[in-house]
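Summary for the steering committee. One of the milestones for this cycle was to obtain a three-dimensional model of the protein with adenosine monophosphate bound, which we needed before selecting residues for the alanine scan. The sequence and ligand used are listed below.
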Amino acid sequence: MNKKTVDDIQVKGKKVLVRCDFNVPIQDGVITDETRIVGALPTIKKLVDEGAKVILCSHMGKPKGEAVPSLSLAPVAKKLSEHLGKEVVFAADANVVGENAKAAVAAMNEGDVVLLENTRYRAEETKNVDTFSEELASLAEIFVNDAFGTAHRAHCSNVGVTKYIKDAVGGYLINKEIEYLGNAVNNPVRPLVAILGGSKVSSKISVINNLLEKVDKLIIGGGMAYTFMKANGLSVGNSLLEEDYIDYAKEMMAKAEEKGVKLYVPVDTVAAQEFNNDAETKVFENGIEDGWEGLDIGPKTTEIFKDALKDAKTVVWNGPMGVFEMPNFAKGTNAIAYALADLDATTIIGGGDSVAAVNQAGLGDKMSHISTGGGASLEFLEGKDLPGIVALNDK
Ligand code: AMP
């Protein structure tokens, strides 16, 4: 990538502000999933080992500018200390850059680590107001962004600070995201296949449109497929349908043809009369009867999709093939997850529900890359510039 990274800078003795993604799930003060903390360790360890004074910051949840105690990062400091095998000093300041934070930073030696309080305790954070950016920046001489999940937003702690700190580079986690997603979209080993699913065409319009410029094959499943089926003149019963997007679906099918992209939509559907895991099911081909709602791709579709994936060398997947939260309607999604796990290809899972589906199937470690940012990876696939990445220094 053309952005500078932590490998391009000298940090010894310098104060380095690192924007991490410590937005971990917490129940009754206990962290229930440490994935994001573990993911941040390589960048932190590198800076510690090189003798930087490492000042960490992150948001957690949506405290909306209030110091909500249940959204404090204090438990993260404790967990980080365990992982790093050294004390992480927690600067408990309701206004983030307060007396505690300033004193903790002033007392730092080389290799020390301080964690600031939840950046969203400050209302300015999500509005990217200069005053808070300047306060954060005043603590450090170098800025490292390692939070991909917020890269599609311009906030104080990922974009605003770069107005005041000249040296702004990417951490290992954010670089890995850019490398995988960037190569997949801009420089893929072909054939490149994209699989899109999830509930709505409307939320993935720009992705479909942009990916049709890049991919060799586009597979569409999930709730969004019914709008395409309707556009093909088929009845969809009670399935999810976005009437306003039928013309758009037609346009996209025409675009695929024009671009020589093979577009796959389901040829059969597993449907039920109730939105319930134990509901009686029926498989429909050539349209769905009234009173029935499509909740998963059917067995023929699953085979066609698997076949379409066989020669893939790069695959990007965003969105489940059905209501995978209910085991009886997770079969199509699981089959795709297993098919990807068996491929000799670069497989990229683009955040959100597809990540949950892959992990639910226990196949997380079989994928080349699992994106840590649902919204950010979607915007990346839409071809948009992500402000959190644009703000970093070019190589
Ligand atoms: P999204 O947030 O747009 O990626 O959509 C993810 C959601 O789509 C999941 O909660 C799935 O349960 C849902 N979904 C997938 N297929 C269907 C379907 N056939 N009918 C209703 N919801 C679906």
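Key point for the committee: The mean pLDDT is 96.
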